Amino acid sequence: MIRAKAPEDHPRAAPARPKPLDFPHYQARGDSDVAHEYTQDFNRLFVSLEKNVSTEHLQAFELSPHGEIPLDRLIPDECLPPSEWLQDPSLATQASDAKTNPAKLSNGIPCPGRKEFYDRAKELLYDTDAAFGVISGKGIKGTRPVRLAYSHKFYQHLLLMAEYWDTSKDHYTQEGDKLMYTGRRYGASHEMPPQFREDTVCAFVEMCIWPFRCNIQNPQASVTRKLRFQDRYLPIQGVTSAVCRNTTDRQKAKRGIMEGPLMGIHCRNITTFRAEGQALGQGKEELLDLLFEVGAALLVAQKRAREGKEEVQPGKDRFWGNRSTRHLGEVGGGKQDKETNARARREIASEDGDPMEGVEVEGGGADEKSNETGGNEKTSETGGNGSKKRKQRPGATQAYLDAKPPESMWEGKVEYRMIGKDVGAGADNIYLISSLNHHISLLTIRVDDRYLDFITHGSPRPGFDPCAQGWWNLQVKRSKWYNLFNAEERVEAMRGVWGAVAWMMRDTGAG
Question: Which 3 state secondary structure label does DSSP give 507?
């Protein structure tokens, strides 16, 4: 049941006081001119990351973070919408409209131009209260309601965020011993459900990418939100989804298959980044935030690098990873595995009274099944007098036999493609849309193929030169944090997302 909310101007018990707005800070350092020792024991370093996080972890990744980077230094100029595009295209001159006919995209359609950008940007420039009035059905008196053709879903979710973050209408009064409140908030910022931020950011990005025939992949399952880090998998905290290209194959489209990812989306629910007295850049939470953020970008790079490859399931061709092998010892098990399974059956027989009762046999021949069961398999769950047998809990051996191989780490409805990477390039440009508080920023990382091999496998490709210049350094460049409650900053954020998608969707000749 949805609880009815009191109107904004109706006095009510005051919600919790908001926490001061805070962001993580990173200390940029000079680029290293010596390659990191690529035989370092990363397993030891990252085995207890969340308990013992320090700047040593940033140094291990060879991270060089840089913030407040202008958009024209993150996105090539030919794809970044100019400021003139914020003016009505019907009033534009031919000279100022020169960018409206760019080349086709990698999916064969013309690149969206000035009109498509302006139609969406003008809605983001609406007064936030006017847009909220349309959503709530309580417009501002004496004003004409604004039209939300493309941004309705975004403002709908942003209003839910405002009920925890928007302090612009906060007003407190003392009535006796009670502190009363009127305003937009119904809770404090740190109490907001994380789903509200995720829905708002995805709705914002979706509005920007639809003209490019792109869509947002559903938030990924926890098993696929793990960065392969040499001999282990590191879970990426926060909600991670991705921007993908719609397939042009109708049959694949009917099955919901998309291509990519083009870029990642990473939302976190952290509001406090350092303990009292800690210096900027030294807080545990801000160090973890940077590592998980970079991990999300590297995860996008790993997925893009899967193009043309097949997944190697953990335990493939190994005795412990094949269920049939563990039952009958047939697939590569040999005599030793058959003896192991025979001993397992004897243990089950001693526990349950029947050597094959409750054991699901897979992969064995018909003769072997017949010999082992005496040709009489029990199919009934009732005893001879018609009474039901008591179901016993499986022992350790039975649990071992019933164990399943690990889940797939690949998404079933994504066709991995390195869309936007130049043919023959030795590095991949990764874009990440990052979100904290009620803000978003655009992050870009250039990941060298040799760096990705090192992170993923821990062993270099043939002919690898560890002293080759530049492969080991990870340059992390970030735009400013754009406030989604501010109209001008919303549009600037849209320029960044639009430009990044246009750059990644350009036709590189790779398809």
Answer: coil
**Range in 89-93, 395-399, 500-504 with the lowest mean pLDDT:** 395-399
Helix %, strand %, coil % of the chain (to 5): 35, 15, 50
pTM beyond 0.90: the answer is: no
Neighbours of 424 (CB within 10 A): 6
Give the DSSP per-residue string, 412-440: TTEEE--TTPPTT-SEEEEEEEEEETTEE
Q: Which residue has the tokens 């023959």?
A: 424
Interhelix angle for 487-504 vs 194-209, to 10°? 60
Extract the runs of DSSP E, i.e. beta strands, from 282-413: none
The SS3 assignment for 352 reads helix
| Residue type for position 166 | D
For 283-326, write each residue's pLDDT tens digit: 888 888 888 899 999 999 999 999 999 887 766 666 556 655 55
Let me know: does 24 contact 283? Beta carbons within 8 Å. yes
- Cα atoms in the Cβ-side hemisphere of radius 13 Å centred on 41: 3
- Angle at CA 423, nearest 5°, toward 420 and 427? 70
Instruction: State the DSSP string of 52-81.
Output: S--HHHHHHTTEEEE-S--GGGTS-TTTSP
**Strand-pair category, 226-229 with 239-246:** unpaired
CA atoms of 431 and 439, how far apart (whole Å): 17
